[in-house]
From TrEMBL:
Membrane spanning residue stretches: 278-297, 374-391, 403-425, 431-455, 462-481, 501-519, 531-547
Species in which this protein is naturally found: Ornithinimicrobium pekingense
Alphabetized CDD domains for the sequence: ComA-like_MBL-fold
Chief place where the protein resides: membrane
Pfam families in the cross-refs: Competence, Lactamase_B
Mode of membrane association: Multi-pass membrane protein
Taxonomy, superkingdom: Bacteria
Protein name listed in UniProt: Membrane protein
Length: 808
């Protein structure tokens, strides 16, 4: 018996030791991968010879360190390595990783930049090129009357310019207007085109920009396999077409990476709630599809040795369906690593697998080093590997046994959010407080949406009707995903402003690291001194609770607000306790709808559309969805005709009556008095007909008077100047987003105290022009511009005008 007991104790001791080893993560490859990533991020925009030099020195140094230390294959039994040996080993591995990615990156950069294409771009040469389409064409609407913009990447094969024909593999970005056939190109098709090369920004993957002259000529369509996947994608889009708007956008996004159908306001809400990764193919989708395939082949009784090959074949098919572009390949690799991380049997190898995956992906595509998507995907996977299992176990230990699974369900989004938060701050300058809860609620819905969507995509070439039926099964969880995002975006304090840029990311990283390292100490202290916790909660609540007039939005007593809607105009005038006037809607529905929600608008007594350029009427759907609109007041000039017709159609479908306005008309709407100053009966000669036909409104609310000038140009401004001569205004809505085409006499003649400019950040028009800003400030006006100040508002304190910036 004693012998038996001793044997049992020994076995138990070995099991405990194995469990401890399994719980310990293998960190040896993580630091080298992170160091190599950081070095490549800094060097890949530079010349290839720098990468070669750094890579060669790093690789040579790593080799010398390895030989000098006499490292070789590990012995079966040996003493634990000393700390100094561990440090030397990490340094040597880091140098080896730097050498690997730098030399691989040098090969890519040398291939991309060989030849005269980059030089021709600097010279603005006209060229004829042959190349392969390497991304899906992206169609972007523009905030004016012009056609949408089409952007795609092209890997050149041959280029002719300056009397020379060369073979080249240079990557170029194509940028042109829609309507010439570029938006219809298929991925991996070979095309010929002519155009002018332009220089790109320093640090771009593309060596030049091609501005085409005319449509492309398709020389060779994609191969048979890719043509088949194109057919599946097209049929799948037809299958989801009858679904509700949110589901119609989310299901193709999760299944084939097609986000073109996602409503813009839903995209904004998913970004605000930290759910952006659910609107397109990500590592979690790859893991779901892979896991579902594994269960399917196991249930079908497939032999064990054939299961992995069949799952891999299915994964390859899924990647082809989504397009094996860098972002999808990254998702496939990270999804596989994440699947390993969530498996308790293989958790120990997941961290080395992540390090190897990072190094492998950087060798295949060095430009991933500068990709925010790659950073988010890698950090989310790192969070799953390091924290999801211990946090899940810790949470489960405090729950009843039947609710133990809640621990893992909560730990997964929490770990991913903590790891990704610094990069999210870099992207949007804010912290979302609802991301963990939103992702926790969304987690059970992702699997049925993705799996049923994949089934619908597979069935679509065989039977469109059957595929549509299955797609309706995916529609309900997808619609619920959309509702979670929309409701979460409206939660008070769901998004908190943070320090912008790298400083904010570093600050959040430091705070997160401090909390993680000192968390056990604080937990112990709070257990012993509960009043510390109550005091801390009270302090935080006091700091976050908005004091009247100091950060609360909307500010008390606001009279007019300017909405940050990008490159466009959207202004809101308060006409009563619960009603407003809206002047223009911006280019997209999402931002203006969010602005109205934040202002707590439920009724619009008067919707004024100054003219029919899309940067003033494109967001109409957002206003109609967010509030009840009594009447729409329109410019009498229907230019551009297509946009005007679409706008009138949307108003008609919503049952909103429309009224055309001309100069001389006066309206009393609630507490607001509105006089129409322009346009008159005779059109203005010169400039843009649509811009000069803008409604110019003299609006008075109590003692506050403002002049709203639409997009008028100097020709119409002269007429307006004569009509308003001698009037004093408190506010001036600056014409045409602060363009250089201002009438100085009109601007100074208003004697306004505040100038409001609706303008988009980093817009391509150069708005607001320096000359316009100089003119406004020279006239003594406080300039509020939505590209810098965000949402803005003006209130009144007795005789004083008070300005409020949302960014404060």
């Amino acid at each position: 018996m004693p012998a038996t007991g001793s044997t049992a104790d020994a076995v138990g001791s070995r099991d405990a030791e194995d469990a401890r080893k399994e719980a310990r993560l293998d960190l040896r490859l993580v630091l080298p991968a992170l160091v190599a990533w950081a070095v490549l991020t800094a060097l890949v925009p530079g010349p290839a010879w720098v990468l070669v030099a750094v890579g060669s020195v790093a690789a040579l140094t790593a080799t010398v360190m390895t030989r000098a230390a006499g490292w070789g294959p590990p012995h079966v039994a040996r003493e634990p390595p000393s700390p100094w040996r561990v440090v030397r080993g990490q340094v040597a591995l880091s140098l080896a990783a730097v050498g690997l990615v730098c030399l691989a990156g040098a090969a890519h950069v040398a291939r991309d930049r060989a030849g005269p294409v980059a030089g021709w771009g600097q010279e603005g040469a006209v060229v004829s090129v042959t190349g392969t389409v390497t991304t899906e064409p992206r169609v972007l609407t523009r905030g004016d009357e012009r056609e949408p913009l089409v952007i795609l990447d092209l890997r050149l094969q041959r280029a002719t310019g300056r009397g020379t024909t060369v073979g080249t593999a240079a990557p170029v970005v194509v940028m042109t207007s829609a309507g010439e056939g570029w938006e219809e190109l298929r991925w991996r098709s070979t095309v010929r085109a002519e155009g002018r090369l332009r220089v790109t920004e320093s640090g771009d993957r593309s060596v030049a920009m091609l501005v085409p002259r005319g449509p492309p000529v398709t020389l060779r369509p994609p191969g048979g396999v890719l043509s088949a996947t194109d057919h599946v994608r097209d049929r799948f889009r037809e299958a989801v077409d009858p679904l509700p708007a949110d589901a119609r956008g989310l299901v193709p996004g999760l299944v084939i990476g097609d986000t073109s159908l996602t409503p813009p306001d839903l995209t904004e809400d998913m970004r605000a709630t930290g759910m952006t990764h659910l609107s397109a193919v990500s590592g979690s989708n790859v893991a779901l599809v892979t896991g579902a395939l594994a269960l399917l082949v196991a249930a079908a009784g497939v032999r064990l040795r054939w299961r992995t090959p069949l799952v891999l074949v299915g994964l390859v098919g899924f990647v082809l369906l989504c397009r094996p572009e860098p972002s999808v390949l990254r998702a496939a690799v990270m999804g596989s690593v994440g699947l390993v991380a969530l498996s308790s049997a293989r958790r120990r190898v997941s961290l080395p697998a992540l390090g190897a995956a990072v190094l492998g992906l950087l060798c295949l595509d060095p430009w991933l080093a500068r990709s925010y998507g790659f950073a988010l995907s890698t950090l989310a996977t790192l969070g799953l590997v390091v924290w999801s299992r211990p946090w899940g176990d810790a949470i489960a230990a405090r729950l009843p046994p039947r609710a133990a699974l809640v621990g893992d369900a909560l730990a997964v989004p929490l770990a991913a959010q903590v790891a990704c938060a610094p990069v999210i701050v870099l992207l949007q300058g804010s912290i979302t407080t609802v991301a963990v809860l939103a992702n926790l609620l969304a987690a059970p819905l992702v699997a049925p949406t993705t799996v049923l969507g994949v089934v619908a995509a597979v069935l679509s070439p065989l039977s469109l009707t059957l595929a549509t039926v299955v797609a309706w099964g995916a529609a309900l969880p997808a619609w619920m995903l959309g509702r979670i995002a929309r409701v979460g975006a409206d939660v008070p304090y769901g998004t908190l402003d943070w320090v912008d840029g790298p400083a904010g990311a570093l600050l959040l990283t430091a705070l997160t690291t401090g909390v993680l390292l000192t968390g056990p100490w604080w937990r112990d202290r709070l257990r012993r001194h509960r009043w510390w916790g109550y005091a801390a909660l009270g302090t935080v609540a006091g700091l976050l609770w908005p004091a009247p007039g100091s950060g609360a939005w909307p500010p008390p007593g606001w009279v007019v607000a300017g909405c940050d809607v990008g490159q466009g105009d959207a202004f809101v005038v308060r006409s009563g306790p619960d009603s407003v006037l809206v002047v223009d809607t911006g280019p997209d529905p999402g931002p203006v709808a969010a602005c109205l929600r934040d202002l707590r608008v439920r009724r619009v007594d008067g919707l004024f559309l100054s003219h029919f350029h899309s940067d003033h009427v494109g967001g109409l759907g957002g206003v109609l969805a967010e509030a009840e609109v009594a009447t729409a007041y329109l410019s009498p000039v229907r230019d551009p005709p297509a946009v005007a017709a679409a706008t009138l159609g949307l108003l008609g479908e919503a049952g909103v009556p429309t009224v055309e306005l001309r100069a001389g008309r006066s309206l009393g709407i609630g507490d607001a008095l509105v006089e129409v100053v322009s346009p008159g009966q005779r059109p203005v000669v010169g400039g843009s007909a649509a811009n000069n036909a803008s409604l110019v409104l003299d609006v008075a609310v109590g003692p506050t008077r403002m002049l709203m000038t639409g997009d008028i140009e100097p020709e119409a401004a002269r007429t307006v100047r004569r009509a308003v001569e001698g009037r004093d205004y408190d506010l001036l809505k600056v014409a045409h987003h602060g363009s250089a085409a201002q009438d100085p006499d009109l601007v100074t003649g208003t004697r306004a105290e505040v100038a409001l400019i609706g303008v988009g950040e980093d817009n391509t028009f150069g708005h607001p022009a320096p000359s316009a800003l100089t003119l406004l400030r020279g006239a003594g006006m406080v300039v509020l511009r939505t590209d810098i100040d965000g949402d803005v508002a003006v209130s009144r304190d007795g005789d004083a005008i008070v300005v409020h910036r949302r960014e404060e």
